[in-house]
């Protein structure tokens, strides 16, 4: 009987001791608000772009005689890349040149021969007219004196009219071959037409020689000698040499953070261990409504040699940096993406909800600009504590910051 009473007393004492010494409050993990360097960036996927991509083709249908370049070749502006068969074009050029020579010869003949002959004919016709006028006057006087019959006067009159007609014809011929005359104008027009025909033939022949319009890299060769080149079909594809650029797309939610001249670091998927610098120079004024993205373009001041057009790259654009920001782990700030973020602090052994304002978002960290002070202890959400709950702190988790032993 005594033993049973003793056992009961011992159990009661154990319960009392357990109740007295058992930890009170919810066990929670905490972190300390500390100052730390913080960088916020956004990451996007893009492609290497050249200033321009050129599809080199022909306006004419012709047989390809020669292709002087292969894929990967670097060409200079003006370099001959493709030659098309130009037999007909060469013949047209020679024909136009012959017509020019003929027109020039006609023009020389007009100035050196035809015009002087016409002027001489005018002078001869004027002399003949003076003789015919004198003969008419003499016949008129002799007929009046009845030395000749009236028929003699009629004959003199016909000769006078013939001389006048010959003079008009000679004058017309002279005027026609003068610098402003119709004949000479016609010869000049034929010369101009021949010169235009030559220019057209030479231009057409020039179209049969395809040259590099700019310094460029040959990306594709889609034609071989002997092929029939069709008008409007690309024979070569070129990437213009010049400034290397990156065209990337970012989620539109990051648009408010972007700015021109923002620094970035890019990494090609094919060369993950060789990052290179880039600078934002263009932000699209419109958002892709279907994808919810915005296009961003970056310059690469010093492109590495391994970059190639259309290569896939990942871009990290730095949008903010603090050397000593009040920082907490992202999980410690509740509703961080809303307009009313808050944290749960430990004060006098209880959880206290405190509204805060946030700044930069780093990798795993967030800047708290208002509501807490350095050294404050924030409760992590995993413990399930709510505002006003009694809490007890588990051993500190380490970075960022450590938590002093605050007891129960």
Can you describe what's shown?
The structure is a single chain. The chain has 408 residues and is α+β, with helices and mostly antiparallel strands. It has 4 domains: 89 residues, conserved putative lor/sdh protein from methanococcus maripaludis s2 fold (Beta Barrel); 90 residues, Efflux pump adaptor protein, beta barrel domain (Elongation Factor Tu (Ef-tu), domain 3, Beta Barrel); 63 residues, RNA polymerase II/Efflux pump adaptor protein, barrel-sandwich hybrid domain (OB fold (Dihydrolipoamide Acetyltransferase, E2P)); 119 residues, Up-down Bundle (Four Helix Bundle (Hemerythrin (Met), subunit A)). 32% of the residues lie in helices and 34% in strands. The chain contains 4 helices and 22 strands. It has a 6-stranded antiparallel beta barrel with strand order 3-12-15-14-13-16. A hairpin with a 4-residue loop joins strand 14 and strand 15. Helix 2 runs antiparallel to helix 3 and helix 2 packs antiparallel against helix 4. The chain is rod-shaped and about 200 Å long. The two termini are 41 Å apart. The C terminus is likely disordered.
Count of helical regions: 4
CATH-assigned fold name of the largest domain: Four Helix Bundle (Hemerythrin (Met), subunit A)
CATH class of the largest domain: Mainly Alpha
Radius of gyration, in angstroms, nearest whole number: 51 Å
* Annotation, overall tally of beta strands: 22
CA-based shape: rod-shaped
Describe the biggest sheet? 6 strands, antiparallel, barrel
Structural class: alpha+beta
What count of structural domains?
Answer: 4
What is the H/E string? HEEEEEEEHHHEEEEEEEEEEEEEEE
Can you name the CATH architecture of the largest domain? Up-down Bundle
Going across the biggest sheet, name each strand in turn.
3-12-15-14-13-16
Strand content: 25-35%
* Low-confidence spans: 17-22, 398-408
Q: Indicate the mean pLDDT.
A: 82
Distance between the termini: 41 Å
